[in-house]
Amino acid sequence: MQYLMTIDAGTGSVRAVIFDIGGRQISVGQQEWEHLVEEGVVNSMSFDFDQNWKITTKCIREAISKASTLISTFKPSQIVAVTASSMREGIVLYDKDGKELWGVANVDARASVEVVELKEEFPAIEEEFYAQSGQTFALGALPRLLWVKNNRPSLYQKISKISMISDWVLAKLSGVIASDPSNGGTTGIFSLKDRDWVSSQATKVGIKDDIFPPIYESGEAIGEVTSQASDECGLSRGCKVVMGGGDVQLGSAGLGVVHLGESAILGGSFWQQIVNIPSSTTPPKDMRLRINPHVIDGISQAEGISFFSGLIMRWFRDAFCDMEKLQASQRGIDAYEILEEMAASVPLGSHGIVPIFSDAMKYGKWYHASPSFLNLSIDPNICNKASMFRSLEENAAIVSAINLENISSFSGIDSDTVTFAGGASNGKLWPQIVADVTGKEVHIPVVKEATALGGAMVAGIGAGIYSSIDEVAKELVEWSRAVTPNMSNHARYQEQKEKWQEIYAEQLKLVDRGLLESMWRAPGVGCRKTHK
């Protein structure tokens, strides 16, 4: 029997997941990790590659150990290929010997001054680069590299290579530093049409232009597990190391979203709304949306992002729902299941509660209002944990619907169905709310953790087990259920959505006036340059 492994390096944790070649998940090793605030560096989120590699190897060994317990005949040597996925935008820098120098996680926002510097010294450069790459400077690599040049000059001089965090995992396993379009494309130093680096962008702004590693398509083998890596993590020497990709794009593959016009909502820590479009499509001039290369050649993805949707739910659970967590433990279920049971009795509109968290995506000027609940009542029968929880579910669906509508307006592509996956799709209430708010039939896959399955697909392609992502998706993606929208509810949610947009705009004004703090703002938004 042959097995495949995906290492999924997320914002809050890393997982090693083993699949059999029929796409069945065998075992998982998972551990949370934290990103470091660098002393004296505002809005920093450093990637602790030394500690995180130890955590990664522990997860790999845990997955192998669990598989050995579940399957008496299982041996690590039967894992024939391994790949990796990660949070996009996070980068790692290396010296000439391939040793890590510096790294940051995806939402590190330290480079505000550098974003302003680029815009002031090179007028319209962000628009020029966005037209090529589909990325703004919000989370791009150029401002971060410029920050290193400005603030860590001795380290900057040592930089020989750059990669994404999933690439770093593969480099630790194989010794080969490389990248792929779906993740490397999120640096912004990239061509959507050519699916390759645009080093001239770095040249133009005075950044090293010889640090970009080879590009492999997802599913191409780049090397084998080295002896050192084998000793550290327990994978067999010679196990194929296969190029992976960005978490959203591999997640799309794991959902079968592999053809033009197909769409999905991925409901994790952040929510992504994606639609497959031709890679020749020019990004929209207003820079409202993000455009990324897919893991499939010839296809890009128009993407909207809802900030912290899943993390907000975790905050609400941990801050206010100790009783529900205790009840869940006693019943042997998830606390979210109890909260959904409570919220199911709350009427549409959540008694008028208006959550203010993530805005709809405005990629060119990306910031959010101050987190809050508005229009609360002091009647405990109306304003309580159940109604507030439902309001958060409704709000996540509303922001997703707005992002999908913006994608449709730009691309001319729309669909009456959408795939819904990730932890948010596990419940009963939330998928129905998504269907009602969007007016689309919601399809929910059997495998909710689609990114790991997408990784297994490309690992299997690299091992010669599968022929293509398109073909293997037909074989492995299975569907749990479809949720039909209630169109009467949809009409009511349309009114609620319009009202929410007006209220959110007013809340942004309070941030603009300096009266409240933004939940998150992109580097350079509302910032003035303070040095030359």
Essential attributes:
single chain; 532 residues; alpha+beta; Nucleotidyltransferase, domain 5; 7-stranded mixed β-sheet; 21 strands
Could you give the topology of this structure?
Elements lengths: L2 E7 L3 E8 L4 E8 L16 H22 L8 E8 L4 E4 L5 E5 L7 H10 L3 H9 L7 H11 L1 H6 L2 E4 H10 L6 H4 L5 E2 L4 E2 L1 H6 L16 E4 L2 H7 L6 E3 L2 E2 H8 L8 E5 L3 E8 L11 E4 L5 E8 L2 H12 L1 H10 L3 H9 L10 E3 L15 E3 L10 H27 L5 E5 L7 H10 L2 E5 L4 H13 L6 H8 L2 E5 L3 H26 L20
Helix pairs in contact: 2-4, 10-16, 11-12, 11-14, 12-13, 13-14, 14-15, 15-18
Descriptive notes:
This protein is α+β, with helices and mostly antiparallel strands and 532 residues long. The chain has a domain at 3-248: ATPase, nucleotide binding domain (Nucleotidyltransferase, domain 5, 2-Layer Sandwich), CATH 3.30.420.40. Helices cover 39% and strands 19% of the residues. The protein has 18 helices and 21 strands. Strands 1, 2, 3, 4, 10, 11 and 12 form a seven-stranded mixed sheet that branches. Strands 15-16-14-13-19-20-21 form a seven-stranded mixed sheet, sandwiched between helices. Helix 14 (385-411) packs across helix 15 (429-438).
